[in-house]
Design brief:
By secondary structure, this protein is of the alpha/beta class. The chain has three domains: 235 residues, TIM Barrel (Alpha-Beta Barrel); 136 residues, 2,3-Dihydroxybiphenyl 1,2-Dioxygenase, domain 1 (Roll), CATH 3.10.180; 186 residues, Roll (2,3-Dihydroxybiphenyl 1,2-Dioxygenase, domain 1), CATH 3.10.180. Helix content is 35%, strand content 24%. It contains 21 helices and 26 strands. It has a nine-stranded mixed sheet. Strands 18, 19, 20, 21, 22, 23, 24, 25 and 26 form a nine-stranded mixed sheet that branches. An eight-stranded parallel β-barrel has the order 1-2-3-4-5-6-7-8, surrounded by six helices. Helix 3 crosses helix 4. It is elongated. The protein starts with a strand and ends in an 11-residue tail after the last helix.
């Protein structure tokens, strides 16, 4: 598979862009004309830069307002084309993109436009160049790839072909199956872009909100299946106009793009197994059976605060690592690990970020296959020196540089708890009825959300929910969830646009993205709340006004609302059922736990977030409460 990306898709000057593209593993690069024009080097030198980077120059683009022009504009258009052919010769580019005209002077008519391309084809042939025609979604006369193909067909020149762009087809909701009848040899290059489902002007949507395949809502997979059905096996190139990408790390965006193309073609292969794809096969998306554990890094003082809170929540000290300062706490199917060892990643993470949930493990069918897929999609494997009798745990880097471990039931991985930990007999607190992990919530800068959405969507067998705006009294937080079909893995990603929100403060004060809270599941939240109270747990205090409001808003029984208020439980309801939430105090000024009961409800209580955040702010701002809060 030959992958390419347009220079307009990433930040930096031309040399910096080429370096990032090459390091990300692309086959080639599209030179966007403005990137070339503003760069202070000759066409010949730029072409040499491309080749020195180990890249092919897949396309020179765009050439605008060429076809269907009346005189004297027609002659000027051909003169401009000849000048661009001169530049292409110096660059070493053999394919140019012409996008359909948006000029108010342009005349319609398929035959007239085809005649222009026939003549241009004769001129290009003398230089051994090819020209691809692309239908802009907002083109004046040609805005549909079916019409662009008819122009190419009537021009009937071997070096005049079609350029297909997923955004231009999908944004206009054109039937992608119309692509299947186009001869593969007349498709000169395929450009790919996704986008969120916005209802806005097509040009503005295209110029500001495109993103990588898999990051948006357009049916790019259906488009690519239709392209592959033609037999096309040429270059797949990303052309992404996105303000956020142009301000971000060019290396990170280039890596995301390569990951998106590899994942897309893996999806095509699985949807169309009869189609041959020139790409190494990889294991299927990782199906998570359960979250095996969550690991915290701490020092002895912060560990004491965490242990006090966990004890009040009904967790018992169930194991101690045989050789390290690592303790296991358990309740129901939940395993929490507290690492106070003075070596390894956990300790360096503590030094940088303080108390944090820096790692989690998931149980899968085959850990080796999980690692193979993750590596194929550009995830960074992690390993650190283990003792001779310790199990080597396969892991990859995740959000904020944290870790995701893979476990299965094979060999030593299936016996980690027994092999690595000595059982501890301790005086158990009253179990609170916590049964499992409902979801993890990770906070990050908003401009990282698409990266991690693609990371999870490509590596794991999950789907994404629509983007939701979370109202924080100090600003807006964008939230999106990835979850699997069985709901054994749910991760909410909260993107902070400024540091004044609770999510933004967490990112700023802990020096990067990470897991900000863990939600546990119970089947009887009132029984759980009563046991927590017996254990000395101090729930987050919600404004009394909240309970008056939900009684009227949902038409709830006053006695039921009284019980919610007694235990500081929040409530939400949708067409499918009810959702009950209870929050812990804050740890380290930012981290917290949640306990939830689901009664047919499949959301995350977004409407309650503002009340939770307001309560947390009161807690942080209270001079009587230290920043490192334990249960009291």
């Amino acid at each position: 598979m030959k992958t390419s990306i347009a220079t307009v898709s990433i930040s930096g000057d031309l040399r910096e862009k080429l370096s990032a593209i090459a390091r990300a593993g692309y086959y080639g690069v599209e030179i966007f004309e403005n990137d070339f024009l503003v760069y202070d080097a000759s066409p010949r030198d730029v072409g040499q830069m491309v080749r020195d980077a180990g890249l092919a120059l897949t396309l020179f683009q765009p050439f605008r307002d060429f076809e269907g022009m009346p005189e004297p504009y027609r002659k000027r258009a051909f003169d401009r084309a000849e000048r661009k052919f001169d530049v292409m010769g110096e660059l070493g580019a053999e394919l140019m993109l012409i996008c359909s005209s948006t000029s108010s002077a342009a005349l319609g008519g398929i035959d007239r436009i085809a005649a222009d391309f026939f003549e241009l084809g004769e001129r290009a042939a003398k230089r051994n160049l090819r020209v691809g025609y692309e239908a802009l979604a907002w083109g004046r006369h040609i805005n549909d790839h079916r019409d662009a193909w008819e122009v190419v067909r009537r021009a009937d020149q071997p070096n005049i072909g079609l350029i297909l762009d997923s955004f231009h087809t999908l944004s206009r909701k054109i039937d992608v199956n119309s692509i299947r009848s186009i001869p593969a040899d007349k498709i000169f290059i395929v450009q790919l872009a996704d986008a969120p489902a916005f209802d806005m002007d097509l040009l503005y949507w295209s110029r500001h909100y495109r993103n990588m395949p898999g990051e948006g809502d357009l049916p790019v997979l259906d488009f690519m299946r239709a392209v592959r059905a033609t037999g096309y096996d040429g270059v797949l190139s990303l052309e992404i106009f996105n303000d956020q990408f142009r301000a971000a790390s060019n290396r990170a965006v280039a890596i995301d793009g390569q990951r998106s193309l590899v994942n897309l073609m893996d999806q095509v292969r699985r949807a169309e197994p009869q189609i041959s794809i020139d790409m190494p096969a990889m294991p299927a998306p990782i199906a998570v059976e359960q979250v095996e554990f969550i690991e915290f890094t701490a020092d002895p003082a912060s560990a004491k605060s965490l242990v006090a809170l966990l004890t009040a929540m009904g967790f018992r000290h169930s194991g101690q690592h045989k050789t390290k300062q690592v303790a296991r706490y358990s309740q129901g199917a939940v395993n929490l690990v507290i690492n106070t060892d003075l070596n390894g990643l956990a300790h360096s993470t503590y030094l940088a970020r303080g108390l944090s949930a820096y790692a989690f493990g998931v149980r899968v069918e085959d850990a080796a296959e999980a690692m193979e897929r993750a590596r194929a999609l550009g995830a960074l494997p992690f390993s650190q020196q283990a003792g001779s009798d310790e199990t080597i745990l396969p892991a990859i880097r995740g959000v904020g540089g944290g870790l995701i471990y893979f476990f299965d039931d094979k060999g030593d991985l299936g016996k980690v708890w027994e092999r690595e930990f000595d059982p501890v007999t301790s005086t158990a607190p009253n179990s609170a009825g916590i049964e499992g992990i409902d979801h993890l919530a990770q906070s990050m800068p908003y401009d990282e959300m698409l990266t991690w959405l693609l990371f999870y969507n490509s590596i794991f067998d999950v789907s994404k929910t629509p983007l939701v705006d979370i109202i924080d009294p100090s600003g807006l937080v964008r939230s999106q969830v990835v979850e699997n079909r069985s709901r054994s893995l749910r991760i909410t990603m909260n993107g902070a646009e400024n540091r004044t929100t609770m999510a933004g403060q967490f990112v700023a004060e802990t020096f990067g993205a990470g897991t900000q809270h863990v939600a546990f599941a119970t089947s009887d939240i009132f029984a759980t709340a009563a046991r927590l109270l017996e254990n000395g747990f101090a729930a987050l205090q919600i404004s009394p006004n909240y309970y008056d409001d939900i009684e009227a808003r949902f038409g709830l029984d006053p006695d039921f609302v009284g019980r919610l208020k007694q235990y500081q439980i929040l409530f939400d309801e949708d067409a499918h059922g009810r959702y009950l939430q209870l929050y812990s105090p804050l740890l380290n000024g930012a981290f917290f736990f949640e306990i939830v009961e689901r009664l047919g409800y499949d959301g995350y209580g977004a409407s309650n977030a503002i009340f939770r955040i307001a309560a947390q702010r009161r807690l942080v701002n209270s001079s009587a409460i230290p920043r490192d809060v334990a249960a009291s």
